[in-house]
Specification:
The chain is an alpha/beta fold and 402 residues long. The chain has 13 helices and eight strands. Helices cover 55% and strands 12% of the residues.
Length: 402
C-alpha cells in the first residue's frame, strides 16, 4: 500500500472504530431497556430524614406559582422548599414567596447560569443542612409520589438519584415537537433504563435530581456550563458516587409553544452536550486507570452525541469512507465498519420507536416525521455554526397565540 493510501486509510479506520464503540454502547442501552424489569419491592417511598427541595428560577413569574403548587402537593409536611431567584428582572421572587416558598435572590451579571444558582442555594442550605437535597427546575411538575421515591432511593443507596424526567408536547402541538418528544423519551427514559439495567451510572438530566447532603455539599456547582447536569453526573461517577436511575419518580415539563422557544431550548441542549463530549472522552482513560470500568462506560455513553448529530456523523463517515475507497483499496474496511455503524444505529432507533415511541409518533405520522428528521439533518451543520453562546439563555415560554 502506498504512503498516500496509508494517509487516507488509517485516520478513517480509527474514526470509524471510535464511532463503533459509541454505536455498540447505544445499541447496548436500547437492548437492555427491553429486558424484564425486576422491581425492588423492599424499598418504600417513606421519609428519609429532612428533605429540601431546591428550585433555581430565572424570570419565571408567569408559571412558577403553578409549579410550586404542584411541588407542595408532592412534598411531605416537613420538607423545605427553597427558590433561588437568579438575576431576575420580574416578580419571580415575590410570586414564590406568596406561594409559601423560602426565597433567596441572587444578582451577578457576570456569573450567570443554573450552576451558580444551585451553588447559592446549597450555601444557604448549609446553615441548616438537610439529609437529602432534591433539585427541580422552575417549569417542572412532579408526580405526587416523585419526591418520596427520590428521597427514599437516595437515602437508602447513598447515591445521587435521577428521576424519570420527561418533556411533553402541548395539545395540538406540531409534528416537530412530537419528534423532539420522542428524542427526549429515547434519551431520558429508554437509554437511562438501559444504563440502569446494565448496572451502569445513569446521566443526570437537569431536573428531579436527589443528592445525599454528604455528596452535594462537597461539589463545586458554580459553573456556567450549558450541560451542567451531565457534567455533574460524569464528575460524580468518576469520583465514586455513580448516579442511580429511579424510574418510579416521574417529573414532567412541557416543550415551549413558540418556534423561538423550541429553537432556543434545542440549541442550548445540543451545544451543551457537544461541548461536553471532549471531557467525556478524556475521562475514559482516567476512569480505566483508576479501575472504574462502570465510570468509563458511563463516559462512553455521555460521549454519544444528540440523536440528530449522531446519525449525521455516522452518515458522513460512511459517505467519506465510500469516497475514500475509490482512491485507496485499503479503505474498504472503513467502509464496512461505517456501513455497520449506520445500519445498527438506525435499526436500534427503529426498534426503540416500535417499543416506546408509537404513542408519541403514531405510524401514520412516521413518514412525515422521517422527512422532518432528514430536513433537520440537512440543516444541522448550519444550526451548529450558529451555536456560539456559553451563557444561560432563558427559554421563551410564551404561548404560541400570545
Amino acid at each position: 500500500m502506498a504512503f498516500s493510501e496509508h494517509v487516507i486509510t488509517w485516520p478513517l479506520l480509527v474514526m470509524n472504530i471510535g464511532a463503533l464503540v459509541l454505536v455498540l454502547m447505544y445499541a447496548a442501552q436500547l437492548l437492555a431497556s427491553l429486558l424484564p424489569q425486576h422491581e425492588n419491592t423492599s424499598l418504600e417511598p417513606t421519609p428519609a430524614g429532612p428533605v429540601a427541595i431546591l428550585v433555581p428560577a430565572h424570570d419565571e413569574e408567569v408559571g412558577i406559582g403553578a409549579t410550586l403548587s404542584a411541588m407542595r402537593q408532592a412534598m411531605a409536611s416537613t420538607d423545605r422548599l427553597l427558590v433561588v431567584a437568579d438575576n431576575c428582572t420580574d416578580r419571580t421572587a415575590s410570586v414564590a414567596r406568596a406561594a409559601g416558598a423560602e426565597v433567596i435572590e441572587r444578582h451577578d451579571a457576570l456569573l450567570r447560569g443554573k450552576g451558580y444558582a444551585l451553588d447559592a442555594g446549597i450555601r444557604h442550605l448549609a446553615l441548616s443542612p438537610p439529609a437529602i437535597v432534591i433539585m427541580v427546575d422552575a417549569d417542572c411538575f412532579p408526580e405526587p409520589d416523585a419526591f418520596s421515591w427520590l428521597a427514599a432511593t437516595a437515602s437508602k443507596s447513598g447515591r445521587p438519584t435521577q428521576s424519570l424526567y420527561l418533556m411533553t408536547s402541548p395539545a395540538g402541538g406540531p409534528l416537530s415537537t412530537k419528534v423532539s418528544e420522542f428524542a427526549f423519551t429515547l434519551k431520558n427514559r429508554v437509554r437511562q433504563r438501559g444504563l440502569h439495567r446494565l448496572g451502569l451510572p445513569c446521566h443526570l438530566t437537569g431536573s428531579g435530581m436527589a443528592f445525599p447532603w454528604a455528596t452535594i455539599s462537597t461539589l463545586d456547582l458554580a459553573d456556567g456550563h450549558l450541560a451542567e447536569d451531565m457534567k455533574m453526573g460524569l464528575k460524580l461517577a468518576l469520583a465514586g458516587h455513580p448516579p442511580l436511575f429511579c424510574e418510579r419518580a416521574v417529573v414532567l415539563s412541557a416543550f415551549p409553544e413558540t418556534t423561538t422557544g423550541l429553537d432556543t431550548q434545542r440549541g442550548r441542549w445540543i451545544q451543551g452536550h457537544i461541548s461536553l463530549i471532549s471531557s467525556a472522552l478524556r475521562a475514559i482513560p482516567t476512569a480505566l486507570y483508576q479501575g472504574r470500568l462502570a465510570a468509563a462506560l458511563s463516559a462512553v455513553a455521555t460521549a454519544i452525541p444528540p440523536l440528530t448529530i449522531f446519525v449525521l456523523m455516522l452518515g458522513l463517515l460512511f459517505a467519506i469512507s465510500l469516497i475514500a475507497s475509490l482512491l485507496a483499496e485499503g479503505a474498504l474496511a472503513a467502509v464496512l465498519i461505517a456501513a455497520f455503524n449506520l445500519t445498527v444505529a438506525l435499526a436500534m432507533t427503529l426498534i426503540a420507536w416500535v417499543k416506546f415511541g408509537q404513542e408519541i409518533l403514531p405510524p401514520r405520522a412516521a413518514m412525515r416525521a422521517a422527512w422532518l428528521i432528514l430536513a433537520r439533518l440537512a440543516s444541522a451543520p448550519r444550526s451548529l455554526a450558529r451555536l456560539r453562546t456559553s451563557s444561560w439563555i432563558r427559554t421563551d415560554r410564551s404561548r404560541s397565540g400570545d
